[in-house]
Amino acid sequence: MSITDNALYGNTDGTQKHSFSQKEFLNDYIIETLSSKRKADEIDKLKLRLKEKSILLEKANTFKKKKVNTLKVSRKLNKQFGLHEVPKCAKYIDFLPLHSLWLQYIKSNFNSVTLKADEKLLRIDFHGAQIKVRNSKCKSYIGLNGIVVKETKNIFVIITKNDEVKRIPKSMSIFELKLNNFLVKIAGDAICVLPSIRASKKFKSTNKVNHLLITSNF
User: What does this protein do (predicted)?
Assistant: First the structure.
C-alpha cells in the first residue's frame, strides 16, 4: 500500500482530497501486510489488540551517550612538577588562617569540658593543627613545632615559625597538640593511615586508643 503526501495531508492549495483516520490507516496496513500470512479471524483479533495504540513502524534511533575523557595527571608528572608539594617560599604567617579554621573545627566537634581518649581523636583532620614533636627515634626532630600543611600516610609536613618546611615521619614518634583546654599526646604509629581513610576508619583494637594520653588544664 502506498499513500502519497497529498492523500494524507491534502493538496498544496489548501483543499483536502482524502482524509485517513488512524483506524482506517491501521486496518488497511494490517490487511495488506498480513492477508497472505494470517487467517481472517487472526487479523480481526490483531486489529482489536492494536486499536488505539501507537505503532512503531521503524526502529527508533538510539543515541549512545559519549564518554567524556577526563585528563588525569600521572604520579610521575605530579612529582616532576611538584604539584602537591609545599613551595619553599611558603611563610608561616600564610597558614595562620588555616590554623584558625582548624581551631573552629575542633571546638565544634569536641567538648571543651570533658575529653575522653576514644577513637574519635584518632580520626581528626590534622591539616592546620599546631603540633609539637615530643619524642622521636630521630633526635633532631624532637622539639620541632609548627602547623601541619600536608599529611600523607606516613609523614607530617609542617611549617615552623622560622618559615622552615619540615617532613616528620609518624612512625616511632610522639606528637603533642592542643585540643581546647586539653593537651593530647598521640603516638604516630596509631595514625599511619591515609587521612581520607582514617576519617571513616573503625579502630577495632583498643590498643590504638591506648596510644592517646590526655592532660587537662595545662
Answer: Component of ribonuclease P, a ribonucleoprotein complex that generates mature tRNA molecules by cleaving their 5'-ends.
Q: Cell numbers 608539594 label which residue?
A: 85
3-class DSSP state of 134: strand
Three-point CA angle 79, 102, 98, nearest 5°? 55
For residue 166 the three cell numbers come to 619540615
CA pair distance 152, 150, nearest whole angstrom: 7
Res 4: pLDDT: 45
Q: Which residues of the chain have pLDDT under 70?
A: 1-39, 43, 46-47, 50-70, 112-118, 201-218
Q: Name, in order, each residue with C-beta under 8 angstroms of 191's C-beta and a sequence gap of 6 or more.
A: 122, 126, 170, 198
Give the 3-state secondary structure of residue 130: strand
